[in-house]
Design brief:
With 333 residues, this protein is an alpha/beta fold. 26% of the residues lie in helices and 25% in strands. Strands 3, 4, 5, 6, 7, 14 and 15 form a seven-stranded mixed sheet that branches. Strand 12, helix 7 and strand 13 form a beta-alpha-beta unit. Helix 2 crosses helix 3 and helix 5 packs across helix 6. It is globular. It starts with a strand and ends with a strand.
Amino acid sequence: MTGTAARFVHQTARPDGFPTREHFAFVEDTVPAPAPGEALVANLYLSVDPYMRELMDGGWDLHTPLEGRSVGRVTASRTPDLKAGDLVFHRKGWRTHALVTPDEVRVLPSHRGVPAHTYLGVLGGTGLTAYVALTRTARLQPGEDVFISAAAGGVGSAAGQFARLLGAGRVVGSAGSPAKVRRLTEEWGFDAAFDYHDGPVGDLLAKAAPDGIDVYLDNVGGDHLEGAIQGLREFGRIAWIGAIAQYHSARPPAAPRNLYDIVEKSLRLEGVLVRNHRDAQGELEDFLVPHLQAGRVQDVHTMTHGFDSLVDAFLGMLGGANTGKMIVQVATE
């Protein structure tokens, strides 16, 4: 068997501020035929995520294929653990084809009515982050009120729907446009939502949740964290997932001016790193698949098509062009 022609995206320079297309290059190369113990995967769907912006500052090597969550189909195999036709999840993204070993992939189960790209959305790292943040980090209890920032993004839109299924009381979200705010309340079960451009986050949150909140899922940091501390009740919990407000800044924003209120209110703030909770994947699927099949949960996503759209999809996601999870379809299933 000869090698397979493939395409890759490399990062070519470190950004100073918001990245551009000039920081990336499309590269053509050949993927060797699988050696014993390996399999060749043709990627179908690729994930672009906010955390990748931080990797651009030093976590990714320049001029090498980049890392990212992917779903693909095994096309050739020289290991008994993987067979041609298997649908697999792996982390060799930003490319059309990849060589993998069995310990680098997860063979995906088949569930009626659940498309493959869902394993990059609510059944993937995006949904797992939301689920872990609510159930393990914040330990949401029935009847408690929740605020979610960047609520129209992948993690946020999943978290709002999950919170409702877990018995939350009032679910409030923030987003970056009136259209996204409408979708939060009209489609995804949020009780209230606001456009954070309309004023100080703390004031907007006070109007949306006048009795305060018990749990805050932070995808933004900065003024959102300050506003949430203002609105949290005593013994509230903060699950800190991301800080997209500072990803493009060489100088991080100042700490919230009310940070000491964490002490005064006996609040708990804990970071959420999904790789520490991979053991919850089966728990997530048991919880979520019946809701997906019954139509009680939407896998909210924005999908671009074609490998050539990958960089634009990433930059668009960083700029808020997506609603829900941003996914790139490389090939048809």
